[in-house]
Amino acid sequence: MAERIALFGGSFDPVHIGHLFVAEEVRIRLGYDRVIFVPAAQPPHKNGPPVGSSSDRLAMLELAVAQENFSIGRWELDRGGVSYTVDTLRRVISDGLADGRPGLIIGDDLVANFSLWREPEAVLRLADVIVVRRENAPLPDLLRDAHTVDNSPLPVSSSQIRERVQTGSAFRYLVPELVYRYIVDHRLYLGS
Ligand code: ATP
User: What global pTM score does this model have?
Assistant: First the structure.
């Protein structure tokens, strides 16, 4: 059955409470039936590939995404290679998963480079782009019609967590408990 869905793409390397909290805020404030977390195989705009393997990042998402109106879209991992949002949107729409236009959640740390995404105009045509606050970055002209959400961002990032793991600093409560356990048990993020 088609639902009002919002997609939330990322590396999720690892997924953390900042991701989960903002997804829940958007779902409730904008009245979506479901937020679908979409892990990228290879994000185009990061410096280098993810540190965690696709299977570890997916396993941690599966442990984190435990509520009934959150789910995981594996399209980008299944496609492999560099992950382009426009391809994922076309797939979601052609599969008839969305009731109306899907939402697309992006943090404002990504807006400055939005024009460099593959087919940014098509992304804007296919989805309702929802910009959530993270750094208070100004919106470029291309995104003038995007929805903005006046959320309270949690000051957490995956890179900060990876660094904390590596340096033996506290990170336990920045991720769901099962994700913490997974990172410890699989000795993730310890290498330099
Ligand atoms: P890294 O530190 O490795 O760059 P990240 O914490 O930004 O990772 P991603 O998986 O790259 O995590 O982010 C996926 C999406 O989630 C992006 O749109 C990003 O802006 C958003 N996001 C990440 N952390 C937060 C947060 N604390 N609050 C709001 N949005 C966030």
Answer: 0.97
- pLDDT tens sequence across 82-124: 999 999 999 999 999 999 999 999 999 999 999 999 999 999 9
Q: Rounded to the nearest whole angstrom, what is the distance from the C-alpha of residue 107 to the centroid of ligand 1?
A: 7
Q: pLDDT tens across 14-72, in order?
A: 999 999 999 999 999 999 999 999 999 999 877 788 899 999 999 999 999 988 999 99
SS3 content of the chain, % helix, strand, coil (to 5): 40, 15, 40
Distance 108 CA to ligand 1 centre (A): 9
CA distances from 23 to 36, 38, 54, 78, 119 (A): 9, 12, 21, 23, 25
Contact between residue 35 and residue 8 where contact means Cβ atoms under 8 Å apart? yes
* Ligand 1 centroid – CA 141 distance (Å): 22
Q: Whose CA is nearest to atom 21 of ligand 1?
A: 107
List, in order of start, the domains of the chain with CATH numbers: 5-185 (3.40.50.620)
* Ligand 1 atom with least separation from CA of 40: 10
1: exposed, middle or buried (Cβ count in 10 Å: 0-12, 13-18, 19+): exposed
Residue nearest to atom 17 of ligand 1 (CA): 107
